[in-house]
Design goal:
NADH Oxidase; transmembrane helix; oxidoreductase activity; Nitroreductase; Nitroreductase-like
Length: 245
């Protein structure tokens, strides 16, 4: 989708840096939108796609979000912003979307005509996923957690079944999408900076987000200033983090 002079994946990963200061040079809204479309192709747990992306191009909105982000340079000098939002609260809607998609793929035939594999796939979204995401004041989640720990004494079992666990699942998927976006931007020589320092309540009000949504990160977008990258890249020696078993 994004055109001309693209870097390879390896080149884009090496080029990407967290840019703290952007040049006062406009960037193409359509190209940024195309990178968001690529972000939405990221892997996501059970294909639930519990994310939303808010593409902020209004200078006034950027200014207000920068203020709520403590006026850090990566927000204040950004030409555009992308706010990645985790939406665990949309799990019922996303489950139904997957069910509708599967039934359409199977030819919208009577359930009695489904193959064993097709029944398994539908059962996954009709029963298993709801059993993981449904909760009531955290009580059901804790019951599931304790039950699964007991079963786990005798056989392997999925143990993360509390509200907090499913929240982490949604945040991990949103983070994968954000990484897709940043690498896609780097491939076309656009720069980004992922930010976690902000007043989430104020920004949710600015974007009219529901209370149960959660901002995963805010991404400043633009073209790096000569002094926009603060120093050489530092990484822990690979030997300290790589373990072959």
């Amino acid at each position: 989708m994004v055109v001309t002079n693209e870097k390879s994946v390896s080149e884009a990963i090496k080029y990407r840096r967290s840019v703290r200061v952007f040049k006062n040079v406009p960037i193409d809204e359509q190209k940024v939108k195309e990178c968001i479309q690529l972000a939405a192709l990221a892997p996501t747990s059970s294909n639930m796609q519990l994310w939303e992306f808010y593409h902020v191009v209004s200078p006034e909105m950027i200014r207000q979000i920068a203020t709520a982000s403590f006026n850090q340079n990566a927000a204040k000098t950004a030409q555009q912003l992308v706010v990645v939002v985790a939406r665990k609260d949309l799990w019922r809607k996303r489950v139904q979307s997957n069910i509708d998609y599967l039934k359409n793929q199977y030819g919208n035939k009577p359930e009695s005509d489904y193959s064993k594999r097709e029944k398994f796939a539908l059962n996954y979204y009709q029963k298993i996923i709801p059993s993981l995401y449904f909760d009531f004041l955290g009580i059901i989640g804790m019951i599931k957690f304790i039950t699964f720990q007991i079963i786990g004494l005798f056989r392997p079992i999925y143990r993360q079944a509390r509200q907090s666990d499913m929240r982490i699942v949604a945040q991990k998927s949103a983070g994968l999408a954000a990484q897709n976006f940043m690498i896609s931007m780097a491939a076309i020589n656009y720069d980004t900076c992922p930010m976690e320092g902000f007043d989430s309540l104020r920004i949710k009000k600015l974007l009219h987000l529901p209370a149960r949504s959660e901002i995963n990160m805010i991404l400043g977008c633009g073209i790096r200033d000569e002094n926009g990258v603060y120093g050489e890249r530092f990484r822990i020696p690979f030997e300290e983090i790589y373990f072959k078993k």
